[in-house]
Amino acid sequence: MLLIIQNDPEVPPGTIAENLEAIGIVYAVHHPYNGDPLPDPRDMSALIVLGGAMGANDDARHPFLCELKGFIRKVVAAGIPYFGICLGGQLLAAALGARVASNRWEELGSLPVELVPTGQGDFLFEGIPRKFITFQWHHDSFDIPDGGVLLASSPLCGHQAFRYGTTAWGVQFHPEVTEQIIRDWCAWDRSTAGRTEELIIAYHVMENEYKAVSRQLLVNFLTCAGLFS
To answer: Whose CA, among 21, 92, 98, 205, lies 20 to 30 Å from 158?
Structure first.
């Protein structure tokens, strides 16, 4: 079973759920912020951890994060394929002992990402152009944990993606957004509310490319997990 952990009620699986349903992959979504207990790692074949408005170190305000980081360590140690998105990538880094910094390398909108040489040969990015457009919405960023491999960067954010071992990946960008998700996030803050239509227009200009990359990332991850062929 593929498990998706949703950390925030306003950060849903978006296109990930759409693509999983289109290709017939069974999955379950857990909501630990709402008290859902974390399962036994042995009961899952792969794990996707989504983003959230909180930070990876906000354990005091969001106590479930401490348990979740311990859970992530168990998943990685067991060799269960892991894909962490934005906060999910930051949680992976933090669980592995790396620093997650606040208000560093902030990005917002449809922006380019470039694979570094190690990323160009990485399984998660197979079939994806060296330079591609994705959606960014983050104020925090992760360091690469000891033993991890940097895979991608961007002009404003040096650490866009990393791999740890052979089956765990963290990315800073969002491959799952839809127009509605962008509208919901823009409403969080007055400064972004005023940019809603600008961000939506820019998203639609690159939407086909963005969705193709997002789908390929997911297919690559599912293939690694033995859930797609």
So the answer is: 205
pLDDT digits (tens, 9 = 90+) for 62-101: 999 999 999 999 999 999 999 999 999 999 999 999 999 9
Span 24-43, pLDDT tens digits: 999 999 999 999 999 999 99
Q: How far apart are CA 18 and CA 151, in angstroms?
A: 26
What tokens were used for 190?
A: 């007055």
CATH architecture under which domain 2-224 falls: 3-Layer(aba) Sandwich (3.40)
The answer to whether the CB of 210 falls within 8 A of the CB of 217 is: no
The residues spanned by each domain of the chain are 2-224
